[in-house]
Input
Amino acid sequence: MTAPQILAEFGRTSRIGPIGCNAALPTLVEALGQPFVGDPVYSKSRWPRWFGYGNLQLVVCQCRLVVQVIVPVGRGEIEVPDADTHTMVSYPSDVTYSQFTAALDAVRCDWTRGQDFSGQCTVETEADGVRTEFVFVTTQGYDEPPLADPVLNKAVSSSFHDCPPMLPGQEGDGFNAS
Output
């Protein structure tokens, strides 16, 4: 597979391998091993917290569900779990707007062009109630002319919810819910 194909499948299914919004962190640990553990998202509360696999950044709520997946594409490569083996695999990530939208069309993923902002444009998809936004840069710099074919910078998939109250024994920062 190529980065445009992997990202098109992400747009179509809202998942990269087992990783996606609403995935349970204990299930990901079982499938992929221990994630990178980051800090809390907000300095005044323990949850939600940052976790990661490869260069995929996950926001996980206190009930241990993934509520946001961020794929930083603009760094030159993406490292993602293989869909079959779940081992981490790297791909070059220089993905243009035309390559990506062609890949979305090839997997029959409905998409819309989002609102353009200064220096960027977006492509939006939705799968099973999960919205994913693909952000493209349209210039190399603020004073530069527009690119002929915008370049993908990141993808962000989100599905936020209100967590139920924590149960006794669930207050820790571990991976498993009680």
User: Anything to note?
Assistant: The first strand starts at residue 15 and ends at 16. The radius of gyration is 17 Å. DSSP finds three helices and twelve strands in the chain. The chain has a mean pLDDT of 89.
